């Protein structure tokens, strides 16, 4: 009996010592909507676990999910043209604050446009426009020269500030002469031009690569269920995109040694039938690495539904800005539902929310070009930074206690072994939280409308 008591005492001592070692410091950064905190660094001390009525977040690094490819925005024409309007030293400063991992918020994944989107000042263009009534199936007129005015220069500045930047690209429309409408605005791609369009996308990748801008992935079509006569769009059925990938684009890449990945869909959460039609065709599916999603319709858990059906196909969030602390909760939901990425849409519009030739209303962007040619950094710059600066490429999502639509969190294991805990409080009241991760335990008081990042080493 005496031996049993001694053993029991030793076990209790070991358990106590697991949490009673010298108190450690956990780094914490926070951004609040009232502007009191803007990526403001603080520290908290670990302590012994205790019974508490605080919301307990338990992090389990052993339970792992998807790895992160990256986070960022878009270098569409509107953003690039606005950045080019700045004085050179100010332009360099802004780009540094966007993409530099140390001096900025560390964006490391950017979306490019293949031709123009609706957010552009000049008339819409593709890389192979022809006079009315003419066609060019051999793509003799193909040229990316119009991108050299300000798009490519901004991309190269971005690369200088963050050499680890990755790019994926999306077309808003094929050249007009390939379509039934003979314009980039609306209509469908004619089947007779499927070979030419596959070659068109290949030539874009080759041309940008020759400029020193490798393209990690492309989507076949931005928002393939959108058909609008007022800006570049192109309607695709699931079966049309499946056949184009299977019979033309995939074989074209394969034959010419293009290693750029193909992502399908690139539209909202509300229609899983589209990627499902592609992935259930083995000969099309083999060319497709994953699916891109937008947030304008449907529910975020559609990403998990698709992942569960096709676990070998990755999920990417390719377009959709979020705002304020509720936007931080949305980003957490996106990653909790298997996304490997997050890309907001349009980094910089001006004080009039221009340029924008399209019909869609634009919300204020994360940074704004003001009338006096200076840049305003809105709260969302700091909110995005709470995620982008600390969650590194290759980080693995790990298990943590889930919250709700106004208070949620997520955790990642970075490649260097550090653990990042992201906590968003979009409620109107302060939230008391306790965090337990292995042998570390600490408590936080999170102000209302505030996002917090904890770095646990």
Topology:
Elements: H1 2-20, E1 25-32, E2 40-45, E3 55-67, E4 70-72, H2 77-84, H3 88-99, E5 109-114, H4 151-161, E6 166-171, H5 194-210, E7 217-219, H6 238-256, E8 261-268, H7 273-279, H8 282-285, E9 288-294, H9 302-309, E10 314-319, H10 324-336, E11 339-343, E12 348-350, E13 367-369, E14 375-377, H11 379-388, E15 396-400, E16 407-413, E17 419-425, E18 431-437, E19 440-446, E20 450-456
Can you give a write-up of this model?
Mean pLDDT is 95; it is low at 1-21. The chain has helices at residues 2-20, 77-84, 88-99, 151-161, 194-210, 238-256, 273-279, 282-285, 302-309, 324-336, 379-388, and strands spanning 25-32, 40-45, 55-67, 70-72, 109-114, 166-171, 217-219, 261-268, 288-294, 314-319, 339-343, 348-350, 367-369, 375-377, 396-400, 407-413, 419-425, 431-437, 440-446, 450-456. It folds into 2 domains: 23-66 and 398-456, Golgi alpha-mannosidase II (Immunoglobulin-like, Sandwich); 69-390, Glycosidases (TIM Barrel, Alpha-Beta Barrel), CATH 3.20.20.80. The protein is globular and about 75 Å long. Strand 5 (109-114), helix 4 and strand 6 (166-171) form a beta-alpha-beta unit. It has 457 residues and is an alpha/beta fold.
């Amino acid at each position: 009996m005496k031996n049993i008591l001694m053993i029991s005492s030793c076990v209790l001592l070991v358990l106590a010592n697991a949490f009673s070692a010298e108190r450690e410091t956990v780094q914490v950064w926070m951004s609040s909507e009232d502007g009191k905190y803007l990526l403001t660094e603080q520290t908290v001390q670990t302590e012994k676990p205790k019974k508490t009525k605080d919301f307990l977040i338990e992090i389990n690094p052993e339970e792992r999910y998807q790895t992160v490819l990256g986070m960022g925005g878009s270098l569409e024409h509107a953003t690039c043209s606005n950045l080019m309007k700045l004085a050179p030293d100010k332009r360099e400063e802004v780009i540094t604050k966007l993409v530099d991992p140390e001096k900025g918020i560390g964006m490391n994944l950017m979306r490019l446009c293949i031709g123009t989107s609706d957010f552009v000042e000049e008339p819409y263009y593709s890389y192979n426009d022809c006079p009315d009534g003419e066609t060019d199936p051999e793509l003799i007129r193909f040229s990316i020269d119009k991108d050299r005015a300000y798009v490519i220069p901004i991309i190269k500045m971005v690369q200088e500030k963050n050499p680890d930047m990755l790019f994926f690209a999306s077309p808003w429309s094929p050249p007009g002469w390939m379509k039934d409408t003979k314009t980039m605005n609306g209509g469908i791609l004619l089947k007779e031009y499927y070979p030419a369009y596959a070659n068109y996308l290949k030539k874009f990748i080759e041309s940008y690569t020759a400029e020193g801008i490798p393209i990690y992935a492309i989507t076949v079509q931005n928002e393939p269920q959108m058909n609008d006569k007022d800006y570049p769009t192109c309607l695709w059925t699931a079966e049309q995109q499946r056949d184009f990938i299977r019979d033309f684009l995939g074989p074209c890449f394969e034959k010419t040694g293009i290693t750029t990945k193909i992502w399908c869909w690139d539209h909202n959460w509300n229609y899983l039938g589209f990627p499902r039609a592609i992935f259930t065709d083995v000969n099309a599916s083999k060319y497709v690495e994953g699916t891109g999603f937008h947030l304008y319709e449907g529910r975020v858990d559609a990403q998990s539904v698709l992942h569960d059906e096709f676990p070998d196909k990755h999920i990417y969030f390719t377009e959709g800005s979020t705002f304020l602390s509720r936007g931080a909760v949305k980003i957490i939901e996106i990653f909790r539902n298997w996304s490997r990425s997050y890309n907001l849409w349009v980094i910089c519009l001006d004080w009039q929310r221009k340029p924008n030739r399209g019909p869609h209303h634009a919300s204020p962007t994360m940074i704004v070009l003001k009338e006096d040619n200076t840049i305003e950094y809105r709260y969302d710059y700091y909110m995005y930074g709470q995620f982008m600066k600390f969650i590194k490429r290759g980080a693995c999502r790990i298990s943590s206690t889930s919250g709700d639509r106004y208070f949620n969190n997520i955790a990642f294991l970075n490649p260097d072994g550090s653990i990042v805990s992201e906590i968003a409080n979009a409620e109107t009241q302060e939230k008391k939280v306790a965090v337990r991760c292995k042998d570390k335990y600490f408590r936080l008081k999170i102000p209302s409308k505030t996002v917090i990042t904890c770095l646990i080493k």
